Amino acid sequence: MSSHEEDPLVKERRKMEQIQLERDQQAFPGEIPAIPELPKFGDRFASFEVALLTLRALVIPITGVGFSPTPESKVSRSAFCNRGGSTYMEARRCGFKIVFRLDSTDDMWVVSKDSFFSHNHGRDRRIIEDPKWRPRSKGGGPYDEAEDLEKVSKSRSTFGIGAKTALALADSPSATASEAF
User: Fold this and answer.
1) Residue 109 is part of which domain span?
2) Long-range CB contacts for residues 63-66, cutoff 8 Å, separation at least 24
3) From CA 79, how far away is CA 53, in angstroms rounded?
4) Which tens digit of pLDDT belongs to each residue from 60-97?
5) Residue 179 lies in a domain
6) Which of 9, 10, 68, 74 falls 20 to 30 Å from 128 in CA-CA distance?
7) In degrees, to the nearest 5, what angle opens at C-alpha 56 toward C-alphas 179 and 21?
């Protein structure tokens, strides 16, 4: 092989990466629309679990993409877009993450300024084609936004969206908070 020829293994890897990128663009077309109801910097949650339930109920019906939490920690946890997993090439990983820090004065989990609220991909094609479609949860069953938001409404979180608005959003994934009433 001359110095100008590309190594066959490198060439094959680039070809496979290009094929995967094209599949991703078909599976997650366009861009994810703005989700104004997302937690914002400073929003507070009674627990990290309540924060995850809120994210699941607000984001999955719109994007079709779930979240992966970071391992247990007593002071800081994050929720990453599932499109950011280790099976994806670094350049294609989604950088969306919401970082929560425990406020020791009241034991509330607060959205940190270390969060990054932009996705680098579009909505899952399956949710575009069928708005009632949901990805499977880690437990194997479909997500249930109403059940998640019921748990959130019973918490002492001071998240910017009310449970009534969130439940209306779960019933109508294309609605915004202002349209929910």
Assistant:
1) 8-173
2) 63/32, 63/35, 63/119, 63/123, 63/124, 63/127, 64/123, 64/124, 64/125, 64/126, 64/127, 64/128, 64/133, 64/134, 64/135, 65/28, 65/119, 65/121, 65/123, 65/124, 65/135, 66/135, 66/137, 66/143
3) 11
4) 888 888 888 888 888 999 998 887 544 445 556 788 89
5) no
6) 68
7) 100
How high is the pLDDT of residue 26? 66
Q: Is the pLDDT of residue 148 over 80?
A: no
Residue 112 belongs to some domain of the structure: yes
Predicted TM-score of the model (pTM): 0.66
SS3 at position 155: coil
Q: Indicate whether 180 belongs to any domain.
A: no
Whether 178 maps to a domain, the answer reads: no
